[in-house]
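Input set for joint prediction.
Command: fold jointly, output tokens.
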Amino acid sequence: MKFTKTFVMAATAALMATGVMAQDIAVIAGSVEDAFMDKIKKGVDDATHMVEANGGSVQYLRTQNYENFGPDLVTLINQAVAQGVDGIAIPVWVPDAQIPALQAAAAAGIKIMQYNSGLPVKADIGAINYFGSDEYAAGFGGGKYLAEKGAEHILCHIQVPGAINLEERCRGVTDGAAEAGAKVTVLNTPANLDGDVTGTAEALKAEFIGDSSIDAMVSCADFGAAAGANAVEQTGLDIMVSAFDFSPASLERISAGTQTMAIDQQPYLQGFLATSMLFAHLKFGTEISTDPVLTGPAIIDASNVDAVKAGAALGAR
Amino acid sequence: MSSNSTSSRSRLSLGRLLRLPETGSFIGFVVVYIFFAILGGAVFVGAPGWSSWLNIAAEVGIIALPVGLLMIAGEFDISVGSIVPASSMTVAMLSGHYDLPAAIGILGGLSVGVLIGFVNGLLVTRTTIPSLIVTIGVMFAVMGLTLGFAVLLKGSTSVSYVPHPTAKYLLGQFINYMFNVTILWWLGFAALFFYILHISPLGNWIFALGGDRESARNAGIPTSKVTIGLFMASGFCAAFVGVAQVMTYQQAQVAGGQAFIFNSIMCVVIGGVLLTGGAGSIIGILLGTMTFAVVNQGVFFASLDPNAGSIIVGALLLVAVLSNDSFRKLAISAAAKKS
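tokens >
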């Protein structure tokens, strides 16, 4: 076993030295049960055509679930290394587990491309570039959008109190809104309301009634927009409803005018760009001078919802 | 049992009142309501406040009723947490994705709940595995199946559905813009379960089951049938909430619903149902649900930190269990003195 691994590594190194090889890359992604990952896969699949047309190959590796996530990711990284790939495209979700494994891969001469998650640890793994969103930047864009639409007091809803990425979103919303002169109040709903649309709707209703200066809300969860739209319907107040991420139902609400916008991070682009740009780097030596490359925030509102729906029907949005 | 002086009569009626199992829950509700009425002010005491906590109470209450009955019979049902999304997904799939009539979607959603309840009941009665474990297992299985089917058939973990006006009117409308129609369904279910537990002979069987299963069987009570029936009832009620949610919010999600597990148990226990079975009442469960909902919503109206709500609910649970024990002891000692 150890011998084969060493042999494969030596063979890979030898091939690299000669420079005559087919560039094989592995794209590692999250659980097969996660619909978000299907949009990433669509991007990877489309990029694979380009890779194969140029004599390379793409392996798409996914974990079964999120239960043993760190170790599962490390297993996939080691599997890719053992198969002698030239590059790995991967999000960093569990830095403590993934960084040592990726550093070992890099030491073996494998190029790393990062996407979707883990921007703060990009330097630690020596990634070529990063394709994904930045929570703060996404929030900033959303807050600015609402303020420019005329919001003066925005409620930023966090469904899991203490989650750092969600707090980053609301911090971004606060700064983005402040730039356009609006103020933001953060509402943490208790964790036992996470996913509970009725409970969240009633909580939002209480906030809306309690502070009549609130004229917009943005939820860190898609279901928060359903709850917000319901609270607005109940109270009859004129409040803009918006959320991070989106679902078919939120697209319907945007069409119907009961939701103002949704903040998307475009997973299709993350999969497509990470795969194609990693390959192009290996094969053609290309570099992107923009670093990191942010695929979000992409605001979905009434002006582009039909285009997004068409993209969603094709599995890319 | 003397009736020769007014003072002794009033003491007696006070004693009788204290011995009612619901008294503790009632006092709890009044104290909590007054507390939040003072902090929350006119808005909380007015229609917005009432609609707010009643909307919450109705949803969790519909599930808490059969969960309470099961607890009285000495069983737990954790699987309700996964039946809610499973049923709402089924409705949205059948009527939204496949464009079938709303009635078929609703029927499908409810059947899913009844079927899961039946499986729970069978596993609990045919094996020696405790219901807590059985229903946790079933919950995970149902969660996986819901997710699997949603991704397989729809390629998404969320399905939208614009309900038929009649279905929306019956299950998802807001009366006076604020009061969810599920409040009326909740009261209807409460009346039905009140009849079952306190009036029909089935009620005594349920109490007997929770008291001592062996003696209940020896006394000729069809224990398995009653147990399976109770699990089917809780499956049905959880599915009903799932259906109502689709009609209200026009979407179904794979996730969500887990909150109902602990929330329903909490309502039942705050309502004075004995965790080990054998004691409890529908009025108590209703009061427990209302108390729970008032605390949950009150914190938002009172502008308290929402985490304070969790602390109060937790404390309330402990106080409820402690005071229920005291009231029970009081009742037993009073009964002993009388004889």
